[in-house]
Structure formats: structure tokens, C-alpha cells
Amino acid sequence: MKKILKTLIPIDIAKGLKVTGKYFFKVFLTANRAKKRPHGTEEYPEVPVKLQPRFRGRLTMLKDEQGEIKCVCCLACEKICPTQVITIESGKKEGRKTKLPTRYDFEMERCIFCEFCVESCGFDSIILNHQFELAAYNREDFSIGMLGKEHNMFEVTPVAKFSYSDED
User: Fold this and answer.
1) Do 33 and 94 share a structural domain?
2) Residue 81 assigned to a binding site
3) Is 117 labeled as ligand-binding?
4) Cβ neighbours of residue 153 closer than 8 Å, sequence gap 6 or more
5) Which sites bind [4Fe-4S] cluster 1 (predicted)?
6) Is the same domain home to 102 and 22?
């Protein structure tokens, strides 16, 4: 009889199943008593996603209280970017002492979301927001700039208008 059981259920597999079963039933029986969810999956998109505070999403430019762009074209973000995805052209505006970007392009398809550009900016003019779903069907959707309705650096991209976490 022992020989038949050894061939049908090897001892090592039985020992492993014993340990696994012990922890499975320990978690399964205590999950509801401790008011914990019995599973770890998120019910996205029905339930809003809770992101970690240090999550790095898409690059976004910020404006000040008057609606002016905070960027002064110091080119620190363009120089420090390891993949060279940021392109800035500067210009002047009447009534403003500092430079103003006339073109600020960001190629999201090559970005590695390292946050070096945000850390190097001394004027807090760019951030990585909490936009987490960045999939697109066209390569053109990954080119984001200051101008344009769909490729705007100041707003959420149309691809991810349902997948944006407002929590900070």
C-alpha cells in the first residue's frame, strides 16, 4: 500500500501541499474577520485606482496664477534627459523679463520616466502627473507639445481621460 501511495503522491509534493494549504486556509479564514478584502485585485474601471504618491506618469507643464507658463527656458531639463526626448525653443514676450518657450516638445514613446527633468527644473514648471494609462494606437499620440488640442502638455491626453487619478 505504501509503495502505491509513494508512486501516486510523492512525499515532496505532499509536504509542499501541506505547507501551502496551511497558509491558504489561515489567510482564507481570517480575511473576512479582519475586515480585509479576500483578494488583491482592483475593480478597475468601476473603482478609481489608488496610486502611490511617488508614481511617475506623463510629463505636464505648469502655469502660474496669471495663466502664464512657469518655464523660463533654462534648458536644464533638455540637457539632463538621458534619452533626449525634450526639445525647447525659446523666445521673448513683450512685458515679460524672462524667456518664454515658443516650442516645448516631449516624445513620450522614448521616455523612461526617470524624473531627472523634474528634479533639475529650478522653477517647478514641469511635473510627472498621475496619468497611468498611456497606451495609444498611433505613434503621433506620443508626441506631446504646447500647441494643439489633442497633444497638449497642460491637460490630460484623450487616450487616458478615463484613467487619471486625481489623488496626490
Assistant:
1) no
2) yes
3) yes
4) 59, 60, 61, 104, 106, 144, 145, 146
5) 71, 74, 77, 121
6) no
